[in-house]
Design a protein that fits this description.
Keywords: Leucine-rich repeat, Repeat. This protein has helices spanning 3-30, 52-55, 60-75, 103-118, 133-136, 178-182, 222-227, 418-428, and strands at residues 120-122, 164-166, 188-190, 211-213, 235-237, 244-247, 258-260, 265-269, 277-279, 296-298, 315-317, 334-336, 354-356, 377-379, 400-402. It is of the alpha/beta class. The chain is elongated, with a radius of gyration of 31 Å.
């Protein structure tokens, strides 16, 4: 489905919904008992929802403006709007107008009540095929929800606008444009592990959106142009979709700090000025640009023959590529370069703690390792090393070493623990 198809379907659905909602509201107004509320009660002291809100466009902006006016009026002890100054509640049915609902709907309603006061809605893992209508209508004030209670906690003007929307682990195939219309101030959207095939074009209007998780869906490259227009994005997850080829358009996201494009058929990416964490495991990358801001990089199981010298890299996972040497990483703490073709290790960071070099082409023990004063874990198994240097026994920081699968003559040493190996090497040097 193309973006245009997705938008057209959503527009039709939205128009139909508006007609039905207007008819429904008209019927509910006619059935309101005439003696239910005194329109000019002098004893009531609670502020009333402005009447225009009942018929105003369905948007979070209108709600926020009404809330702001009500709160300001309350501080000045002035009744906003006109008519009966009654209390409005989201979980009561004073007029007995609401239809009967089942247990599953009760769960949704409870979540909505909580979301209206917290600004965070989580409807994940509910086997949903689409976003429930009640979610889109969660800020719509209906006559059937009027509550004559004086509870301050239930007051409608204590609502906050939605900032977090989580609907992960469902079976949702598309998002309605109303998600944008109703929740324009949303900051985080998590739709991972659904069946999305497109996004509504209105997504570019989410000017507060900083975190978007769309991993494990059925999205292709058509969404990239749309996503790259959401300039506030700082965190973007697109793992396990149907993305292919270069993703250069994402380079337009100048504020991006975290990017996950793993398990896609991506061949190349752009450079970023603020990117700190990049996960591109199990793609088809043949090269990667120098991104000086990167501190964590996962590019395991690609087609890389070289990795740039990242100046601020703390954690590098590049296993399962075609590297013949390690990059110079002056700030690195962890390096996983297993299953490559590395034959030499020239320069290592003084702060290095973990070094994994199993299944490579090492024929001699790298001397650069012997000068590491912080190294605690070393894996050089499945190489072609024939002899261990005695200096290895003097590495006090080393707590774990894996040697299996090498060509060392004394096979018994291959299965010993780290301290036993170091002690044996010191003995051979006459230091024990």
């Amino acid at each position: 489905m193309s973006l245009n198809d997705c938008s057209t379907a959503q527009s039709s659905r939205t128009n139909h919904h508006s007609v039905v909602s207007s008819q429904s509201l008209s019927m509910r107004v006619k059935n309101v008992p005439t003696n239910a509320v005194s329109p000019r009660s002098k004893s009531a002291t609670r502020p009333q929802l402005p009447l225009g809100t009942l018929n105003s466009p369905k948007s979070s902006l209108a709600l926020r403006e009404a809330i702001a006016r009500a709160k300001a009026a309350k501080k000045k002890n002035v009744q906003p709007g006109s008519g009966a100054p009654n209390s409005f509640s989201q979980n009561a049915d004073a007029f007995g107008q609401s239809p009967q609902i089942n247990d599953h709907d009760i769960g949704i309603q409870s979540l909505l009540v909580r979301a209206r006061s917290s600004g965070k809605l989580n409807i994940s893992g509910r086997e949903l095929k689409e976003i429930p209508e009640d979610v889109y209508n969660m800020y719509h004030v209906k006559l059937g929800s009027v509550d004559l209670s004086t509870s301050e906690d239930d007051a409608w003007y204590n609502n906050v606008h939605l900032t977090t929307f989580v609907a992960s682990d469902n079976e949702i195939t598309r998002l309605d444009a109303r998600l944008v219309e109703e929740f324009g101030g949303i900051e985080l959207v998590d739709m991972r592990n659904n069946k999305l095939q497109c996004l509504p074009s209105a997504f570019i209007e989410l000017t507060q959106l900083t975190s978007l998780n769309l991993s494990r869906n059925n999205l292709d490259n058509q969404v990239i142009a749309l996503i790259s227009s959401i300039s506030p994005l700082r965190i973007l997850h697109l793992a396990e979709n149907r993305l292919t080829g270069p993703l250069f358009d994402l380079g337009l996201l100048k504020n991006l700090e975290v990017l996950d494009i793993s398990r896609n058929a991506v061949t190349s990416i752009s450079s970023y000025s603020k990117l700190r964490i990049l996960n591109a495991e199990k793609c088809r990358l043949v090269d990667i640009p120098l991104i000086e801001s990167l501190v964590e990089l996962k590019v395991g199981q690609n087609k890389l023959s070289k990795i740039p010298n990242f100046p601020n890299m703390r954690s590098l996972d590049c296993h399962g590529n075609s590297l013949t040497s390690l990059p110079a990483l002056p700030s690195s703490i962890t390096i996983d370069a297993a299953s490559n073709q590395i034959s030499t290790v020239d320069t290592l960071s003084e702060s290095l703690i973990t070094l994994l070099l199993s299944d490579n082409a090492l024929s001699t023990f790298p001397k650069s390792i012997l000068s590491q004063s912080s190294l605690t874990t070393l894996d050089i198994s499945a190489n072609q090393i024939k002899e261990l240097p005695g200096e290895l026994g003097l590495m006090d920081s080393l707590k774990k070493i894996l040697l299996e699968g090498n060509l060392i003559r004394d096979k018994s040493i291959l299965t010993k623990d780290c301290e036993s190996i170091k002690r044996l090497l010191r003995t051979r040097m006459g230091l024990e």
